[in-house]
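Narrative summary of target 7.
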Amino acid sequence: MRMKTNTKTVRISIIGFGYVGAGVAEVIRRKREEIARKYGLNTKIVCIADLNGIFIDENGLNEAELLKLKTGDMNWEKPEDMTTLDVIKDVEHEVMVETTPTNVVNGEPGLTHIITALESGRHVVTSNKGPLALEYSRLMKLAAERGKELKFEATVGGAMPIISLLRENLAGNGILSIQGILNGTCNYILTRMAEEGLPYEHVLKEAQELGLAEAEPSKDVTGIDTAVKLVILANSVFNLNATYKDVEVAGIAEITPDALKLADDAGYVIKLIGEVDRKGCLKVRPRLVPKDDPLNVSGTLNVATIKTDLAGDITVIGKGAGPIEAASAILSDIISIYNTSSGGDL
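Modeled conformation, tokenized:
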């Protein structure tokens, strides 16, 4: 493995400091020395903006400050004369990491954050599905016009590297279709129902208590989250210019233990499967999956089978949720902006 002898300073802002934003700060703290050694990048978090306030250190947060972020001991500043958009525009940095919550109605505030960053000459890395599901073509055109990168590996499959696999490793292949489990919450619920014979409501409550499902879980269990991820795949892989309205969606709330038992007796499991192909078919629905099929993964795992014209079927499996898992995808995107030809695993 080739080590880097010259380093380039990469200043980073984090906009939105929930679980994923905090995860990004944590992985950069953990991996800073390795990133410098392997990839020649001196990563500095110079600003963070959140509903709690704003934190700016133009020299980059040090180890002690990052640990305070992790433990929640940092005192947030709330300057009256500075907004989040001011931070994006006026604080000198190269990469904006946008990790505010997904809004599939109008994409805000993430959509405006991303537009502002690109117009201000920043690269953008995001885990926010809303802006890409609603305005993919517009955002990619703006990034191209400004000569900047817009990376979004963390929007689909968390730590599962599906976007980079499709766009880089499988370059030259014709992608025929993608199908898979893209929501760990639904997969956990169906797995527990099947293994224990428990009713849907019981397992949903259990998932909420474990932090695997939101207090208001409708986006997950109705299939909306999976549908939004399909739209991102449809647009980024197949150039379909699709929207959420183009997806045929059904969720898991009506699935019973009896249905799962009948499927089991016949050699199948029931999984919430998202499907997209190059002809524009987009579907999210519970489906019978043979027990020996690669799509039969359990717990909170995600999985996707990619059908290609040259390489055949390729299946990738990984953790689809979790702050560190999403942050790992964001970190990979940051590195890829500057070091697409370098080797070495983090």
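The chain has two domains: 8-158+324-338, 165-319.
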